[in-house]
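Quick check before the chapter quiz. The format below is the same one you will see on the exam, so make sure you can read both the input and the output lines.
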Amino acid sequence: MINTLIQKIQERKAPIVVGLDPMLNYVPDWIQKAAFEEHGETLEGAAEAIWQFNRGIVDAVCDLIPAVKPQLAMYEQFGIPGMIAFQKTVDYCKEKGLVVIADAKRGDIGSTSVAYAVGHLGKVSVGGKSYAPFDEDFITVNPYLGTDGVKPFVDVCKEHQKGIFVLVKTSNPSSGEFQDQKIDGRPLYELVAEKVVAWGEECMGDSYSNVGCVVGATYPEQGKILRKLMPKTYILVPGYGAQGGTAKDLVDYFNEDGLGAIVNSSRGIIAAYKKEEYSKFGEEHYAEASRQAVEDMIADINSVM
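Here is the expected output.
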């Protein structure tokens, strides 16, 4: 799957991923109104609103980008209807030829880890048939439980040609409470990075591994170190834009081949119409605002490459 992602990045000259993380207050009033008229002010109504919102954005940007990253929590908060909206979003994005990275941050051990991996990346057996329940292309994984928690995902990735992104150094302000703690003089995130490399050696694509990692744009110095520690590991980079990460911060996340990283922006794109620089589009044309934000982000990142 990493080969597919790289091919799409190269075709579109866009090392970016759009985070489909729809809070209800991002959804224009006219979309909410139509959904509530059909379903009432219910969980079903909220789910319909976010699905229609997502579809508008995907239609507007799918020719510009290689991938999307829906955050499961934004759908789970609306219960079963929200998860149906998530599935509709995944299916629609794949119909449009986009790679889907599920931001789920799953991590457990034993049969539970296997179940997460099978449910999101693999196939589950039902009698004499098998089904791909969510069928995303990648999923984010929390490595806190160690190899027992990650290997089931790697095994499923090898079987079904899928991929994962393992949390290494996250973009949030308090990430250092654990991730920066020293063990024999080295920060924990470096030790996790070395494990990511080892896991990834079992699951290689042509030039990069199907086992990628997550390193926040808000920690560029650490990102520079981690890039050197993980030369064949693709880095998913959150924290650009709204969280303070800049294109200049990202230069060292890429390898000399111009590959090796894909940068995420969520609300900076999907809620672009709420920002002053895109306010001219208005609510009615929220998707066009998102398209302009994508074009601006691509130009911004490519300008420093």
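If your answer matched, good. The CA atoms of residues 143 and 186 lie 18 Å apart.
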